[in-house]
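When time allows, look over one protein, given below as sequence and tokens. The question is which stretches look regular and which look disordered:
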Amino acid sequence: MKQLLIVTGPQGSGNHLFSKVFALHPDVYGWDKLLDTYWIAHKDEPFADYWNRPELLKTFDWSQSDYYVTSISCPYQNVDVTAIPKYEQFKAKVPAAWVLII
């Protein structure tokens, strides 16, 4: 069964760190860039466009892995505007059995 882990919390709470730890596993699709770079902006997170526009998830290629991780701060900066993640809209575009939120 495919699973998507959503790591969320206030900015500075460690969601980048946890995403990095989970993405270290070769079977997990996540922030590959975080493996080489200490800090990367949320706008460069692989699911960032989908957090801003959840309807785009219908085009995501779910065949890349069985395990996925995404991280989003709440709130987060989106082009100089403070934004709240669209959790419900995002979850609605992913089969419910795939979503774990910590």
